């Protein structure tokens, strides 16, 4: 893990999007305590560098809408159930971070005053200014919207410099690299390219929201040290922004 503080941070305020699957490790379901701890340790390092960190956490390790469909559960009900999963994940990360001495706040889009604050934009910004890591859970608080969309929305609301999406793969590919070993990785893309090609960057509404607000997205592998590398300015993963420079197969997209 890279722990040496860089001469200058590439980004001051970030919105880090973590999928629920990232928290379950190799066990296939639930929370892997070693993975949660490792993520917390890396976030603690970056926070110690002076970065302002907000996080949106998914809930796919605990409940997914497609599982509900198989059970015949109504889509809106299933989405609310998934939101509750994100709250559990957020509380687990809060506990891991605070055990490392990092001050945190959990803010939820669904009122549950006994366990978390309601999401209030100005309060969240104040927490960030005071050096607290803000964990944003329960998505947007509305069914039919993904946590990708919640991440883009919160990043724009909180004036983040970048939206970081940590995944199981090392960037955006023209095909699923887990299924096709010949898939080509993009080093950079424009928002329009990502939308037109229907690439699995984030869902379309999230990419469109970032496009409208000129918020760059970096998709990268969550492996140890990569959050720090991104913050240090190392070129890893795939950058989605207004202009693309390097694309798949070594050719420039026109």
Kindly identify the CATH topology: Carbamate kinase
Runs with pLDDT <50, length 5+?
246-254
- The tally of strands reads 11
Task: Name the helicity range.
Answer: 25-40%
Question: What portion of residues belong to β-strands?
Answer: 15-25%
What is the radius of gyration?
17 Å
Your description of this structure?
- The protein is an alpha/beta fold.
- It has one domain (13-250): Acetylglutamate kinase-like (Carbamate kinase, 3-Layer(aba) Sandwich).
- 35% of the residues lie in helices and 18% in strands.
- The protein is built from 8 helices and 11 strands.
- Strands 4-3-5-2-1-6-10-11-9 form a 9-stranded mixed sheet, with helices on both faces.
- α1 (33-48) crosses α3 (75-98).
- The longest helix has 24 residues, at 75-98.
- The termini are far apart.
Could you write a compact summary of the structure shown?
This protein has 254 residues and is α/β, with parallel strands linked by helices. It has helices at residues 33-48, 65-71, 75-98, 121-129, 147-157, 191-196, 204-212, 226-232, and strands spanning 13-18, 52-57, 104-108, 117-118, 133-137, 162-167, 172-173, 185-186, 188-190, 217-221, 238-241.
Key terms:
globular; 254 residues; Carbamate kinase; 11 strands; alpha/beta
